[in-house]
């Protein structure tokens, strides 16, 4: 179409990494005598397409870690009241959390999180599509009566443990999942941190909540930087990116 319309110059932000494309369009334009400028706003284009590019360049989904912790560093109390959920963050932070879910293809948790919390893992507090729910269930312990097995969203059960990080990512890649948000629990999130397999992390902190003891929050390691820090009412949200 561009060649047919007689354009003299084309500006390209960044090249498509897909092996079926990979600069072939640019070559055709140049062969037709059209001036092609590549790399304009390249960083911005890479940011916009980070999920797609990661999927094709690294053959794995773009990986986002997300958790909420108390101001003394716990994600859950030592004992839980099964009749009443324990909220670390305020309703506004939970709404932001659901907004983040709606932006990704899949959400992943371990079987223990499902058994302990019976979460729905949907975007009920935000508009948008519910992500595919991925459950690590090496012992096949998640039955149909859990909320993650309802018809609110697709569910993919993997008979793998949280330490099987490469196998997990390969399964997601084979299922054409370009991005995944990993929400828990600590063991699952920490497995990906320790393997160096993550791209971004969202750390919500409820500044008014103290557990004193319980399940420790994940700890980031390796080469990473903080992208932002902002207040959501009385909560703190820190965003990190792996270098």
UniProtKB/TrEMBL annotation:
One GO MF term attached to the UniProt entry: diaminohydroxyphosphoribosylaminopyrimidine deaminase activity
UniProt cross-references to PANTHER family, sorted A to Z: 2,5-DIAMINO-6-RIBOSYLAMINO-4(3H)-PYRIMIDINONE 5'-PHOSPHATE REDUCTASE, DIHYDROFOLATE REDUCTASE FAMILY PROTEIN (AFU_ORTHOLOGUE AFUA_8G06820)
Domain Bacterial bifunctional deaminase-reductase C-terminal: 61-202
Keyword annotations of the record: Hydrolase, NADP, Oxidoreductase
One of the GO biological process terms: riboflavin biosynthetic process
Name listed for the protein in its UniProt record: Diaminohydroxyphosphoribosylaminopyrimidine deaminase
Key word Transmembrane helix present: no
Gene3D superfamilies: Cytidine Deaminase, domain 2, Dihydrofolate Reductase, subunit A
Keyword Oxidoreductase: yes
Listed EC numbers: 1.1.1.193, 3.5.4.26
One Pfam assignment: RibD_C
Top-rank taxon, per record: Bacteria
Pathway(s) this gene product operates in, as recorded in its UniProt entry: Cofactor biosynthesis; riboflavin biosynthesis; 5-amino-6-(D-ribitylamino)uracil from GTP: step 2/4; Cofactor biosynthesis; riboflavin biosynthesis; 5-amino-6-(D-ribitylamino)uracil from GTP: step 3/4
